[in-house]
């Protein structure tokens, strides 16, 4: 795998942003034999991999074996640092949802040999990034064929109630209170129902969590509501808490759930 640490100016965010990108390259390994890495007519499937609160674009490499897992599956991986923004267009700050759905995919598509087809594009996140993955996929369901949330804070309506007594005001700097009411733009269930009514094609969904996680009840409540919709939805749980020990233990299983070609695809 080739690892690219990138810093570039984002016109959407009006600042420099940090990316970490992994691209499959020839290896001294039988699994990589005869793979046409440099065939200009071929492309790599791509995974946008999101960090959680207090993380950045390096955490997946530092705390998991994602680079090796992606190499074995000939999968390109893109990680971006977004701070503690929940991947949304913030109240008093930058437009991270616009960055993730519009500018970043365009930049990556121009710089690297990745497929831009829906069936070859996936997004996964953990914790805050688990919400971000679902929110981004629901903003552009025509871009992503599969989305997974690992211990994701998916029910932002309930999360807003937890932050009512937050004296720092950090949550209010990210979300407008009217955007955290039932039926508002960050109510994932409302977005899904809206897309269903409009007949839009939705990605396949995956949700998992540790059974000892302090937010386990929130995860299962969202799971039960989600199952009622009859969508392509997979739920899994294992012993674990809200940390990298759990996420490292499940990420390879989540990758195996993705509709991967395990090789290059047609450009």
Structure, described:
With 267 residues, this protein is α/β, with parallel strands linked by helices. It has one domain: 3-Layer(aba) Sandwich (Rossmann fold). It contains nine helices and ten strands. The chain has helices spanning 59-63, 66-72, 96-111, 128-139, 156-162, 170-174, 188-198, 216-227, 244-257; strands at residues 2-10, 15-23, 42-43, 45-50, 75-80, 121-126, 146-150, 204-210, 233-238, 265-266. The strands form two sheets. The chain has an eight-stranded mixed sheet, with helices on both faces. Strands 3-10 form a two-stranded antiparallel sheet. Strand 1 (2-10) and strand 2 (15-23) form a beta hairpin. The mean pLDDT is 91.
Topology record:
Layout (H helix, E strand, L loop, with lengths): L1 E9 L4 E9 L18 E2 L1 E6 L8 H5 L2 H7 L2 E6 L15 H16 L9 E6 L1 H12 L6 E5 L5 H7 L7 H5 L13 H11 L5 E7 L5 H12 L5 E6 L5 H14 L7 E2 L1
Provide keyphrases for this structure.
267 residues, 33% helix, globular, Rossmann fold, alpha/beta, 10 strands
Radius of gyration: 18 Å
Strand order of the largest sheet: 1-2-5-4-6-7-8-9
Number of domains: 1
CATH class assignment: Alpha Beta
Strand content: 15-25%
Count of helices? 9
Per CATH, the architecture is: 3-Layer(aba) Sandwich
Count of individual beta strands: 10
The outline comes out as globular
Report on the biggest sheet. 8 strands, mixed
Indicate the structural class.
alpha/beta
Describe this structure in a few short sentences.
The protein is α/β, with parallel strands linked by helices and 267 residues long. It has 9 helices and 10 strands.
